[in-house]
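To the wet lab folks,

You asked to see what we're planning to order before we commit. Fair enough. Below is the target structure as tokens, and below that is the sequence we designed to fit it. If anything looks off to you, flag it before the synthesis order goes out.
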């Protein structure tokens, strides 16, 4: 039975295994823990579960740190290494042995497999029942042994889960799990409980694939007389097809979303909303998320990853960003992806014009390209089609008018409009060659906005480059 933690400060934790990149599902778990703790003035702790030495790597550990840092999830204190606490785990196993809540089992792997094979043949349960459970220590042979939990055989273990509700596990379906291996190393089940207890964790918020583990871990808490945390097992993330998220669905690592150019704030917003709800609110700030987030808002059904929704939220967050913040985010993305250095001042001049039309950071840079390039402007195929001889001659006529303009939007619109009218053209007919000359592209911000950002000298020079080509 889960004890109350209302009188204790909230402490949550994220405990990934360092065997690869930070998965988007793990990132959401970390985010839920972070929001729950930060919204209640509590602590959010980080533990690296690196007991699998064959698969754990320093690079993967750093990838976890980098992913959490990019996502904006700060943790309290230093990250804890589970492997470094092996002596403490063994100490608890031996304490359980001394109190009669655990026992030494000398059954070999061959004996255990023989038991299971016989059970399968006879149609019995293959749940291993150790013959050493009630043995006297004096009868122990001089052979390797493990320490097993002396789990209750009767009744049930009940998990009152904050998300899944009351879940009951029949004790006769749970075996006496190994706590300490024959080489003296602790198992995952033991290590997790000891670490959570020693770290003062009050709420264990994790994927529902750990729900069965909670029953086993609860038995360790009971055996040690420790207060259990609040359990909250959240549904996993599925792909759009309803199947468990995997590489076939596209990006699954946090760093991939960073490289795709989604701002961290948008990813936080989207992941918060993925499996949790607050009325009909879709777009919200970090402050609102911390205030609103609670376990009661988490649904039981698996959430489905939808990139279109993420893109939509990303666009809203870009629009809401301060210009300076957007420039910094775009420059950070450019550095992350190995892009050539970008003129920050030029980008800053263009950002106010382009931010509302973009959904990702690379789109910001692409839309601002007109301000970042140098002469002569590289004109792509589509844009060059707009620069036929007639259009080039009209732009040549425009140049002297611009040299004397006051360089306000109204004045520029009037000059270009008057020239188009004198040629019997609509303004749109003149806008296309202007875009080509100024940006080398057909999809750009307003030509007048580009002129204002580029300034008189650069605008006239770019148009002059086109005029030179015409006269040559």
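Sequence we intend to order:
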């Amino acid at each position: 039975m889960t004890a109350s933690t209302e009188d204790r400060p909230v402490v949550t934790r994220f405990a990934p295994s360092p065997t690869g990149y930070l998965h988007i599902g793990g990132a959401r778990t970390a985010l839920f823990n972070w929001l729950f703790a930060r919204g209640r003035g509590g602590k959010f702790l980080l533990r690296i579960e690196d007991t699998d030495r064959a698969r754990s790597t320093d690079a993967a550990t750093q990838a976890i740190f980098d992913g959490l840092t990019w996502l904006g999830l700060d943790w309290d204190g230093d990250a804890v290494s589970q492997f470094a606490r092996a002596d403490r785990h063994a100490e608890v196993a031996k304490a359980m042995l001394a109190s009669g809540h655990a026992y030494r089992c000398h059954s070999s792997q061959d004996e255990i497999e023989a038991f299971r094979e016989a059970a399968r043949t006879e149609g019995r349960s293959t749940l291993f029942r150790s013959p050493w459970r009630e043995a006297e220590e004096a009868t122990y042979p001089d052979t390797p042994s493990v320490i097993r939990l002396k789990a209750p055989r009767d009744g049930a273990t009940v998990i009152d889960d904050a998300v899944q509700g009351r879940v009951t596990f029949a004790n006769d379906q749970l075996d006496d799990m190994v706590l300490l291996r024959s080489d003296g190393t602790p198992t995952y089940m033991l290590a997790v409980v000891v670490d959570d207890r020693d770290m003062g964790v009050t709420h264990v918020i994790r994927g529902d694939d750990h729900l069965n583990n909670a029953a086993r871990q609860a038995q360790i808490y009971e055996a040690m007389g420790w207060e259990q945390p609040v359990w909250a097992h959240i549904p996993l993330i599925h792909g759009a097809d309803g199947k468990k998220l995997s590489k076939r669905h596209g990006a699954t690592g946090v760093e991939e979303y960073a490289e795709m150019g989604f701002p961290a704030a948008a990813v936080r917003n989207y992941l918060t909303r993925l499996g949790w709800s607050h009325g009909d609110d879709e777009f919200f700030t970090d402050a609102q998320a911390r205030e609103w987030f609670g376990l009661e808002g988490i649904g039981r059904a698996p959430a489905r990853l939808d990139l279109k929704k993420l893109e939509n939220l990303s666009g809203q967050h870009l629009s809401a960003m301060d210009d300076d913040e957007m420039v910094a985010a775009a420059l950070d993305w450019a550095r992350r992806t190995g892009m050539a250095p970008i003129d920050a001042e030029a980008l800053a001049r263009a950002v106010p014009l382009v931010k509302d039309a973009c959904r990702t950071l690379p789109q910001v840079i692409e839309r601002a390209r007109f301000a970042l390039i140098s002469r002569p402007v590289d004109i792509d195929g589509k844009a060059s089609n707009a620069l036929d001889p007639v259009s080039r001659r009209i732009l040549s006529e425009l140049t002297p008018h611009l040299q004397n303009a006051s360089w306000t939007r109204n004045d520029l619109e009037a000059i270009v409009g008057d020239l188009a009218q004198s040629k019997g053209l609509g303004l749109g007919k003149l806008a296309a060659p202007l875009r080509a000359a100024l940006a080398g592209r057909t999809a750009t911000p307003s030509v007048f906005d580009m002129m204002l950002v580029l300034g008189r000298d650069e605008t006239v020079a770019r148009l002059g480059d086109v005029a030179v080509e015409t006269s040559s």
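Structural context that might help your review: The domain at 1-75+189-319 is CATH 3.40.50.620 (Rossmann fold). The two ends are 88 Å apart (CA to CA).

Thanks,
Computational group
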